[in-house]
User: Which sequence fits this backbone?
């Protein structure tokens, strides 16, 4: 109080703020007005009213929006189709929300789930990271034919997700929507944070707040092993040295998943996919654009390590990965959280991280040789020192946990898988008619 005295004395000497404007130090000005609240009651009341109105306004602004959103109209007009798509063939069937449903793995997994009798609803924002035409074709040629309805929307749209979870009581979420690709993070880093972190949290929030929280199965990545040199890569190995932002966001996803599992009792299985390839694949992946470039007689860059070291990948065929996903859904235990009731979880929920690889790495050189053979075209090759922009030198999955937990047994070798891919590619792009090769 003694320390305040000189200031208070000074304040008393300040004339009322009438007449000529005089600049006043902000702190003194503030204290001055505070003192005046106590001495002038009508003004004091006015200030209190303003103050309380601000608090009330802030309170309402911080509440989640309950006003009907654009999607309310969109979903309500589609609700019959969504419910139909979500209805399993038998009462024992699962009801699965597949995010990233028009993506490569998403489309194949959705069709496989639907074909065996599960109820499936897809969600996808059709983002233009790669050819949207290919995504639309996956929808019309794969998903529509199988009877999978796809909601066009973003995993970051919490209102849409809440509405979807209110409309359908999902037993599982197969979360595959993500910003993929290791090298693109150099161009658009924030897209990785937006999809793989913000979007993932949004999906977990929606799942945890569902009336009955579903089990989550989601796509992590082999890239989390980063510069791991111990082979094959086991789930027990350290994953704290990522070399791409993509890998870092997937690793963060695994940590976030653990927190949601621990706090909210969400049953969560993270699947570390190893370079998944096959028909309807992603045009940003090497096997895909190498095929295009070889056919167009364009040069392909083959990455090498220091001293011509071999770069290799544990290429995994799409059908094997889909089997792994379905098996992860089948073996997922129920979430123990109480959803919207907000009561305590019923006990520890299941938490798993499992490699889905082929466990037989193949060099990029061999990949190109196989493509040359299948395409019957000699590639124009250029050896390039692997740029330091996200790639790891090699990947090799230890799949013993997948075998034990999921009965996973990859059965397609790279040549067989690439043959199927090439057949699809030539057919889809109508290559024979368009080119003279
Ligand atoms: O397994 C994974 O976790 C990851 O697999 C792929 O990433 P990547 O294995 O790097 O696949 P590609 O980009 O298709 O590259 C395959 C191989 O070709 C090599 N490559 C790539 C591009 C190129 O021009 N030349 C070249 O030799 C790469 O170094 C790599 O060894 C996917 O793109 C990621 O989304 C996925 O998460």
Assistant:
């Amino acid at each position: 109080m003694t320390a305040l005295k000189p200031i208070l004395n000074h304040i008393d000497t300040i004339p009322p703020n009438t007449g000529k404007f005089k600049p006043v130090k902000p702190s003194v000005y503030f204290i001055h007005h505070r003192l005046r609240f106590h001495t002038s009651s009508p003004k004091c009341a006015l200030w209190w009213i303003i103050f309380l109105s601000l608090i009330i306004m802030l309170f309402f602004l911080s509440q989640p929006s309950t006003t009907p959103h654009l999607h309310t109209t969109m979903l309500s007009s589609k609700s019959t189709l969504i419910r139909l798509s979500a209805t399993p063939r038998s009462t024992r069937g699962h009801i699965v929300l597949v995010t990233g449903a028009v993506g490569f793995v998403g489309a194949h997994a959705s069709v496989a789930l639907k074909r065996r009798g599960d109820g499936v609803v897809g969600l996808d924002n059709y983002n233009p990271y790669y050819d949207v035409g290919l995504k639309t074709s996956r929808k019309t040629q794969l998903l529509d034919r199988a009877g999978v309805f796809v909601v066009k929307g973003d995993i970051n749209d919490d209102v849409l997700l809440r509405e979807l979870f209110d409309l359908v009581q999902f037993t599982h979420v197969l979360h595959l929507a993500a910003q993929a690709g290791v090298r693109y993070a150099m161009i658009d880093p924030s897209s990785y944070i937006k999809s793989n972190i913000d979007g993932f949290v949004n999906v977990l929030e929606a799942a945890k707040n569902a009336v009955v929280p579903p089990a989550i199965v989601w796509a992590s990545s082999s890239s989390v092993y980063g510069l791991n040199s111990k082979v094959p890569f086991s789930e027990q190995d350290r994953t704290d040295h990522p070399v791409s932002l993509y890998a870092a966001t997937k690793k963060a996803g695994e940590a976030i998943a653990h927190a949601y599992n621990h706090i909210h009792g969400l049953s969560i299985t993270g699947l570390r996919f190893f370079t998944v390839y096959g028909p309807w694949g992603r045009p940003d992946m090497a096997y895909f654009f190498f095929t295009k470039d070889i056919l167009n007689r364009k040069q392909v860059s083959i990455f090498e390590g220091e001293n011509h070291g071999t770069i290799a990948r544990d290429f995994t065929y799409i059908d094997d990965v889909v089997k792994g996903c379905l098996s992860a859904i089948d073996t997922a235990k129920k979430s123990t959280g109480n959803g919207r009731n907000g009561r305590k979880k019923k006990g520890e929920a299941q938490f798993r991280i499992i490699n889905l690889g082929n466990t037989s790495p193949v060099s990029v050189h061999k990949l190109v040789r196989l493509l040359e053979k299948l395409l019957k075209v000699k590639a124009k090759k250029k050896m390039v020192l692997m740029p330091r922009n996200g790639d790891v030198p090699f990947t090799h999955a230890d799949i013993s946990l997948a075998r034990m937990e999921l009965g996973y047994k990859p059965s397609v070798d790279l040549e067989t898988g690439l043959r199927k891919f090439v057949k699809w590619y030539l057919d889809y792009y109508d290559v024979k008619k368009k080119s003279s090769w």
Notes: The mean pLDDT is 88.
